[in-house]
């Protein structure tokens, strides 16, 4: 059973969709006429029993507020995406596959900034 779940996460999203629809052929048209693109270098998540909320935005250094001698970062939220848990799981699987392929081609993405620095 655990092996079946592991294999399911390895399948491309298109194949998972075919399995969920009983192998029925479905044509997908993508309408990008009202699409907007934004940049995000930060996110936060929240959820209820029915929905997952993803906030995207940019971390900004607040130069005007060194009141206690500590720098302050402001997370400026620019977009919120709300989805059900099924869509969120498909997104998580797809992102995992995308990152794995990227790392296979270009090397591991180091999340620790201190380990990424060269010569310091």
Helix content: 25-40%
Largest sheet: 3 strands, antiparallel
Contiguous low-pLDDT stretches (5 residues minimum) are none
Query: Could you spell the SSE succession in H and E letters?
Result: HHEEEHH
Integer-rounded radius of gyration = 20 Å
The total domain count is 1
What percent of residues are in strands? 25-35%
Mean pLDDT comes to: 86
Got a strand count? 3
Judged by helices, strands and strand pairing, the structural class is alpha+beta
Terminus-to-terminus distance: 48 Å
Individual helix count: 4
In one word, what is the shape? extended
Spatial strand sequence of the major β-sheet: 1-2-3
Question: Which terms would index this structure?
Answer:
4 helices; alpha+beta; 120 residues; extended; 3-stranded antiparallel sheet; 3 strands; single chain
